[in-house]
């Protein structure tokens, strides 16, 4: 087709997906995220961009995931996945935002061409895109808009229907590595289950069955997918009991349950009646986050969040490396939300280096890639472990001197297969944690012993303009509004082991306040006082 025909094709489709007036869209921490009813034009345009991205990369396959993860049921969102299963390269976020905000069909075609020209993209080259969605009611209509976008620019696509976000990341990496020396796996949902199930069976071979686990699936896509995964593993190897799995009751998604609820409220999902000292976990709406918890004999609730997962995994991997004799550097990546006690434990007791980055998987992921084995977890339960190519080669070529060393190397290699290397994955992390507990013959209370969390509180504050909040030092300090940081500092000084920071959310129209201190009372008080500072703005 001629360039002119191409543009009129885009304009023709675009008229079917008009941009709602008065909204400024931004590609944020987790792509575009807002009310599902406002997303039609955005998703259509993401289709155009996904095709451009694929064409720029010689037809490598790009992923598009339609989900709003932990957000309420009426929200939805869309994010792009790069060829190795990573988040969209940051420099492209600007193009995404630009296309989403074009006022008219004409402006859109002009902006589209401008991106193609600036990046020297050959619009005749092939474009390949795969996509999936979560269980939200607005999903099917948004998929239709995406397909229109892909058709408008003649991209080839495959609809993977309903998947968890990490499953789509896995598929993207599998497709793009299929013909390389290190194929990641079979690019199907079944391939995903097979890979994880086999790795889990190898990692736990000869070990006792892990503790029985009950999983709150937030009434989202993770429920059916986890049941399927458990079926592949088999009840000889693990007992997983899935609750909160009503995916058809769309209004129940993330409602008083799920990883975000349990982490921020620091309490059990609604209606869950736990048996003491048994292991529980909660997923979020697209199953890329997980937190664990239990109640003790005195019915006290204990949260085992992303920091606790990172610490458990770091300890296990460090010990395996010591036994194996393979010399690899392990590092941890956290955010400002990491509990002060966890950072202290990792640095002082485990003696592994800790890097702090801003919130958002892309930041943590990149920092983790700098280590041989990089462990990254946000306190909210999003995280994974990255084994570098050279680490994999060292492990694969290592010549063990005794069966102990061989065992440790085999376990490390199967951990690399068990752990989703593309992004934080609640299902893969669930298997990772239970496999470690099986090795240690631990229940949740033994796991929890490593360190005691400093009491902490997270508050969500709705402000007039969250964009007015600018931070530095990995979000630990405010630069703007001017003068506010000095006021926070003055408050923090009054509390033993006090720490507090304020940052704008990238996924909700609000500002988040985090506070921790030596006692529950003080942590709560500090959080309230810092929040009060924002109210007078
Ligand atoms: C997303 C991001 C996470 C982030 C979370 C909350 O998670 O992927 O990295 O921690 O939002 O971010 P914020 O505090 O900026 O709203 P999810 O699970 O919602 O995709």
Automatic annotation (TrEMBL):
It comes from the Eukaryota. The keyword Cell wall biogenesis/degradation applies. Mg(2+) binds at residues 69, 284, 286, 288. Binds 1 Mg(2+) ion per subunit. GO terms for molecular function: magnesium ion binding; phosphoacetylglucosamine mutase activity. SUPFAM superfamilies: Phosphoglucomutase, C-terminal domain (SSF55957), Phosphoglucomutase, first 3 domains (SSF53738). It catalyses: N-acetyl-alpha-D-glucosamine 1-phosphate = N-acetyl-D-glucosamine 6-phosphate. Pfam families: AMG1_II, AMG1_III, PGM_PMM_I, PGM_PMM_IV. The active site is at residue 69. Residues 61-98, 112-177 form the Alpha-D-phosphohexomutase alpha/beta/alpha domain. Its EC number is 5.4.2.3. GO terms for biological process: carbohydrate metabolic process; cell wall organization; UDP-N-acetylglucosamine biosynthetic process. Pathway: Nucleotide-sugar biosynthesis; UDP-N-acetyl-alpha-D-glucosamine biosynthesis; N-acetyl-alpha-D-glucosamine 1-phosphate from alpha-D-glucosamine 6-phosphate (route I): step 2/2. Residues 458-532 form the Alpha-D-phosphohexomutase C-terminal domain. Residues 209-291, 305-442 form the Phosphoacetylglucosamine mutase AMG1 domain. PROSITE patterns: PGM_PMM. Its cofactor is Mg(2+). Keywords: Carbohydrate metabolism, Cell wall biogenesis/degradation, Isomerase, Magnesium, Metal-binding, Phosphoprotein. Substrate binds at residues 378-380, 503-507, 512. Belongs to the phosphohexose mutase family. Catalyzes the conversion of GlcNAc-6-P into GlcNAc-1-P during the synthesis of uridine diphosphate/UDP-GlcNAc, which is a biosynthetic precursor of chitin and also supplies the amino sugars for N-linked oligosaccharides of glycoproteins. PANTHER family: PHOSPHOACETYLGLUCOSAMINE MUTASE. This is Phosphoacetylglucosamine mutase.
């Amino acid at each position: 087709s001629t360039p002119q025909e191409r543009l009129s094709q885009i304009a023709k489709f675009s008229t079917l997906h008009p941009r709602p007036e008065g909204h400024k869209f931004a590609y944020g921490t987790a792509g575009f995220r807002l009310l599902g009813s406002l997303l039609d034009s955005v998703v259509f345009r993401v289709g155009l961009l996904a095709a451009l991205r694929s064409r720029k990369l010689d037809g490598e396959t790009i992923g598009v995931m339609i989900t709003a993860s932990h957000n309420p049921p009426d929200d939805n969102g869309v994010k792009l996945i790069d060829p190795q299963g990573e988040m969209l390269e940051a420099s492209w976020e600007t193009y995404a935002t630009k296309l989403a905000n074009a006022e008219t069909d004409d402006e859109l075609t002009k902006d589209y061409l401008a991106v193609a020209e600036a990046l020297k993209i050959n619009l005749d080259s092939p474009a390949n895109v795969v996509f999936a969605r979560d269980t939200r009611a607005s999903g099917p209509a948004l998929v239709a808009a995406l397909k229109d976008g892909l058709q408008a620019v003649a991209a080839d696509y495959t609809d993977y229907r309903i998947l968890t976000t990490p499953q789509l990341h896995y598929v993207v990496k599998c497709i793009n590595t299929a013909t390389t020396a290190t194929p990641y796996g079979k690019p199907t949902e079944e391939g995903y289950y097979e890979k994880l199930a086999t790795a889990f069976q190898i990692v736990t071979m000869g070990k006792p069955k892990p503790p029985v686990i009950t999983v709150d699936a937030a009434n989202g896509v993770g429920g059916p997918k986890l049941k399927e995964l458990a079926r592949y593993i088999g009840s000889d190897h693990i007992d997983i009991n899935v609750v909160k799995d009503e995916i058809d009751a769309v209004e129940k998604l993330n409602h008083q349950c799920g990883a975000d609820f349990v982490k921020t409220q620091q309490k059990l999902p609604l209606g869950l009646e736990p048996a003491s000292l048994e292991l529980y976990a909660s997923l979020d709406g697209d199953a890329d986050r997980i937190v664990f918890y239990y109640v003790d004999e005195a019915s006290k609730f204990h949260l085992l969040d992303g920091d606790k997962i990172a610490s458990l995994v770091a300890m296990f991997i460090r010990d395996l490396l010591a036994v194996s004799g393979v010399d690899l550097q392990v590092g941890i990546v956290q955010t400002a939300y990491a509990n002060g006690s966890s950072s202290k434990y990792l640095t002082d007791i485990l003696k592994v280096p800790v890097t702090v980055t801003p919130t958002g998987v892309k930041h943590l992921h990149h920092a983790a890639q700098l280590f041989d084995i990089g462990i990254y977890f946000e306190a909210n339960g999003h995280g994974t472990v990255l084994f570098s190519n050279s680490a994999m080669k060292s492990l694969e070529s290592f010549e063990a001197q005794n069966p102990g060393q061989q065992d440790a190397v085999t376990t490390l290699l199967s951990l690399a297969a068990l752990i989703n290397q593309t992004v934080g994955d609640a299902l893969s992390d669930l298997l990772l944690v239970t496999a470690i507990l099986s090795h240690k013959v631990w229940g949740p209370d033994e796991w929890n012993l490593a360190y005691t969390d400093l009491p902490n509180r997270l508050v969500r504050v709705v402000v007039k303009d969250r964009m007015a909040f600018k931070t530095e030092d990995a979000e630990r300090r405010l630069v703007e509004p001017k003068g506010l940081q000095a006021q926070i500092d003055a408050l923090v000084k009054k509390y033993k082991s006090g720490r507090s920071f304020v940052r704008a959310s990238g996924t909700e129209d609000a500002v988040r306040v985090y506070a921790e201190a030596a006692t529950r009372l003080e942590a709560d008080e500090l959080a309230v006082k810092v929040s009060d500072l924002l109210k007078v703005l």
